[in-house]
Structure formats: C-alpha cells, structure tokens
Amino acid sequence: MKKFALLFFTALTMLNCKNKEEEKVSQEIETKEKASTSLDLGCYIFDDGKNKISLEITDIGVEIKGNLIYAFAEKDKNSGNFSGKLNDGILIGKYTFQSEGKESVREVAFKVEGDKLIEGYGDLNEDGTAFKDASNLNFTSKMPLTKTDCSKK
C-alpha cells in the first residue's frame, strides 16, 4: 500500500510539473503572437520611388482609424480615411477616399507582421466595394508598409 501511495504521489507531482511547463510554453507562444500582431499609432509606408502607400494610424480604440493614401505611378492619387478593426492579426475596414473628384468607399485589409503591414487581396462583390469572403484573403503583396517615423512621410 505504501508503494502504491508513493507511486501515486510521484506520478501526480510529475503530471503537475508537466502541466506547468506546458502552460509556460503556451504563455510564451501567446506573448509572441501578441507582439507580432500588435498595431501602434503612427505611420506605415511603402515607397519604392514610383509607388507609394501610406497609412497613418491616428486612433486605436474600439475602431482603428487613420489616413490612407495610394499614389501609384501613372495612376490618379487617392487619399482618404480608414476605419476598421484588428482581429487575429488582420486589420480590415472601410477606406473612404477621393479620386478624380468623386468620393468612393471600398474595403481594404492588412495583415500585421511585426512592424509591417501586408495588404490583402481577394474576390470582390459585384460593385467592387467589399470582399466576397474576408476570411479567404491572399496576403502576398510585394509592397509591404513598414512602420516609419511620420516626419518622413
């Protein structure tokens, strides 16, 4: 009986240590995920000398708000306001902008990867203003926006 009790307490102690180790690993993973998907106030810019995309995050609250500008070579520049939400490292929202003297609205998405934002693309609805399936976006943009000092805008 003593051997059984000793064996039981040894197994219980080992199980408890294993659970604490798993919990520690889980917390480390969660911390790394939060660090890689956090979004800060400030400017995120892509500029290759020909094309420029700039997103200045001005408010992080229930909604994330900012100013978004697209200036592509040989295309009309458009600029406006962004308002959206960050879920699981994906920032998705509405971009209300002026282009060619007309106000338009379309949905845009960015994946947060450290200090970079990668724009997402996917099939759009018939009028081209929203994604058909926001859970099925492709984040392979070759124009990543990098966190930058806003004075360098």
What are the low-pLDDT stretches, counting only 5+ consecutive residues below 50? 29-36
Shape: globular
Strand numbers in spatial order across the main sheet:
1-2-3-4-5-6-7-8
Helix content, binned percent: 10-25%
Q: What is the SS-derived class?
A: alpha+beta
The CATH architecture name of the largest domain reads Beta Barrel
Question: In this structure, how is the largest beta sheet organized?
Answer: 8 strands, antiparallel, barrel
The level 1 CATH classification of the largest domain is Mainly Beta
Report the total helices.
1
Radius of gyration: 23 Å
Structurally, how many domains make up the residues? 2
Overall average pLDDT: 84
- The tally of beta strands, per DSSP, is 8
